[in-house]
Amino acid sequence: MISKDQSIIMQVAAKIAAELTRNMDSMEATLTDWEMAFNFVNDKLQTANGVAIVQNAFPTATMVEETTSTPNYTLSAARVVDNVVVAGTQHGDLPSWLVSACKKAGVGRVWDNRDTAVGTKRPWFKQADAPEGVEPAAFWPPKNSK
């Protein structure tokens, strides 16, 4: 994994390489020239002298040590039942009527709203993988089930 400083230096190298590259008739030739320029500039900037040059260019910048931290939460593994995945928190086993309804509607990922929807008019499950601009499918339990 690269550090934040290395990432910034690589972005600067990419910009410099773009400025140094000539536009050619062939896209492949242009990309080859850019790649050669990028590799050269990046190698020069990533060396100790290159870092010193960048630090001298920005004398008021302060060096910050990177620290890694472990998040104070755990992610639960997604449970898959017959190709239906629950997005977010799952509140109990998935009912068979939901799996059937998802297959029929072509839905593969749903939000489980049973914790707040039971006893209300809200759907128990809602499609989580609806395309943008399309109303997500909603799933209520059949009238004869509880």
Structural description of this entry:
This protein has 146 residues and is an alpha+beta fold. It has 2 domains: 4-57, no CATH class; 80-139, no CATH class. Helix content is 42%, strand content 10%. It has helices at 4-20, 27-46, 48-57, 96-105, 114-117; strands at 80-81, 84-87, 109-112, 125-127, 138-139. The protein starts with a helix and ends in a 7-residue tail after the last strand.
List its salient traits.
146 residues; 42% helix; 2 domains; alpha+beta; 5-stranded mixed sheet; single chain
Question: How does the SSE layout of this entry go?
Answer:
Blueprint: H1 4-20, H2 27-46, H3 48-57, E1 80-81, E2 84-87, H4 96-105, E3 109-112, H5 114-117, E4 125-127, E5 138-139
Compose a concise summary of this entry.
The chain is an alpha+beta fold and 146 residues long.
Along the chain, the helix and strand elements come as HHHEEHEHEE
Radius of gyration: 27 Å
Counted beta strands: 5
Cross-sheet strand order for the largest sheet: 1-2-3-4-5
* Number of helical regions: 5
The whole-number mean of residue pLDDT values reads 80
